[in-house]
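1st attempt posting a full record on here, be nice pls
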Amino acid sequence: MGTKTKTGKAKKWSADVTEHSDALDLEKDVFKSKDPDKIAASLKHSADESQKRKASPFQSAMSMLNFYENRAGKNLTKSQKAPLEKAKNKLRKLYGKPEK
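the predicted structure (as tokens):
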């Protein structure tokens, strides 16, 4: 199902989407950061600069964050998931949306 990497290992389609999104040009390893401010700012920058997205910058950024969190879900530890959850509210704040 997945594509093969240079090492010959199968790569999941979700990893390919995260790395080669048609909508956003993401900073490398942005989701691995432990800093929610950095994650949110990077996603906002990518969404604001994108000419390929189909939705609003906020929707595109939040969708990519949710996509990563949902696809990586079971494999994320609590310490990895916490900054992603906090980044959602940071992203809402950056776009002037109400926090949840």
